[in-house]
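TICKET: design request
STATUS: open
ATTACHED STRUCTURE:
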């Protein structure tokens, strides 16, 4: 059994430790929810429960699925639970929706599962990019609840339908034989990025500097400072600006936060921290080239939608054509140096990436329509 620091599994000690930690931190609502003390959404109608996990992408996908189903079905109540609260993601996507309830979710202790099943009495349960909790799945099966797994690996209990995110997950579901239906693998996050971004960022940054180049490095915090140091020492820094971003972001390596930028031109050699995700689409469209070193799928699809030339880390889960692999910082810098001297190659790579994005987006739309029809037919 893996570690469960947030206490959402079935282990009693992990749940107790997380409960105590939350209460000491003043997060009693999260502790109570973990024990199953949830309130059903107000209003009339059966409940469909979207159960997200502990990542930003899981919460984002759950919100988008909930919103899409609300447009399809007005007769039901919709519940959304999560293991991390991302207000910037959740609030704008649920604003104005009626007959919904949201908050932290339950753990998988038997008492918590029994309590939440009694309180919500869901006739539909959508697992969204989260761990397949065995006690919850057993309880849902016993209650006759429709269960669908979206971007979620198989557990030990059968579900009505699985919507895998990639070929490996699809194979796992087929081999396990635990889904009545397994959809074609596709990443639905391709539907929820900006396909047409504002292209004025480059002109603002490079005002009066016709030859200024823009680069974007998105990677782990442990590698960021070293890359910035290498970039500053390279010939690229003499005529370009570098944007940096990633998880657990440390802005100490940057000269400027984009959230504090006054839209004035930037001189060559500047490092800009992309600390506001609302700028991601604009940066993806403005840069001459970039690097993706962490596995956020939403960033990947936004990068490809931007029509710029990217390379990826060897460990990236989407390290496939049309993006080449860069093994280390020096390889990234060599790739960017090559693209600086070969703009036609950069355009060709960017075009190939954008075609890949649109292929995934069209496929995701088909799978999404099938899911919504399934939920409509319940």
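STATUS: resolved
RESOLUTION: sequence designed for all positions
ATTACHED SEQUENCE:
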């Amino acid at each position: 059994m893996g570690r469960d620091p947030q206490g959402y599994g079935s282990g009693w000690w992990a749940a107790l430790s997380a409960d105590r930690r939350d209460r000491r931190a003043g997060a009693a609502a999260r502790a109570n929810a973990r024990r199953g003390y949830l309130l059903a959404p107000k209003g009339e109608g059966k409940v469909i429960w979207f159960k997200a996990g502990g990542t930003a992408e899981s919460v984002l996908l759950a919100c988008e699925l909930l919103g899409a189903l609300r447009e399809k079905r007005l007769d039901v109540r919709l519940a959304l639970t999560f293991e991390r609260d991302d207000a910037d993601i959740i609030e704008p996507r649920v604003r104005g929706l009626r007959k919904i309830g949201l908050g932290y979710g339950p753990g998988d202790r038997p008492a918590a599962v029994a309590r939440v099943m009694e309180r919500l009495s869901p006739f539909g349960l959508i697992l969204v990019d989260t761990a397949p909790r065995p006690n919850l799945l057993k309880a849902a099966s016993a209650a006759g609840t429709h269960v669908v797994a979206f971007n979620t690996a198989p557990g030990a209990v059968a579900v009505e339908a699985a919507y895998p995110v990639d070929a490996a997950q699809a194979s796992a579901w087929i081999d396990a034989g635990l889904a009545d239906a397994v959809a074609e693998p596709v990443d639905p996050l391709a539907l929820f990025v900006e396909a047409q971004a504002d292209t004025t960022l480059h002109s603002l940054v490079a005002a009066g500097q016709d030859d200024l180049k823009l680069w974007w490095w998105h990677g782990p915090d442990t590698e960021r400072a070293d890359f910035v140091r290498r970039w500053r020492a390279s010939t690229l820094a003499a005529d370009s600006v570098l944007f940096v971003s990633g998880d657990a972001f440390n802005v100490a390596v940057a000269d400027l936060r984009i959230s504090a930028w006054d839209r004035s031109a930037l001189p060559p050699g500047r490092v800009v921290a992309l600390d506001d995700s609302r700028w991601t689409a604009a940066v993806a469209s403005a840069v001459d080239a970039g690097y993706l070193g962490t596995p956020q799928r939403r960033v990947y699809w936004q990068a490809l939608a931007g029509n710029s030339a990217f390379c990826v880390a060897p460990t990236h889960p989407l390290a496939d054509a049309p993006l080449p692999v860069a093994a280390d910082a020096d390889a990234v810098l060599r790739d960017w140096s090559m693209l600086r001297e070969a703009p036609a190659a950069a355009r060709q790579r960017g075009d190939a990436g954008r075609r890949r994005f649109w292929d995934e987006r069209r496929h995701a739309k088909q799978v999404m329509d099938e899911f919504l029809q399934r939920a409509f037919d319940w």
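CLOSING REMARK: DSSP finds 13 helices and 13 strands in the chain. The chain has a mean pLDDT of 93.
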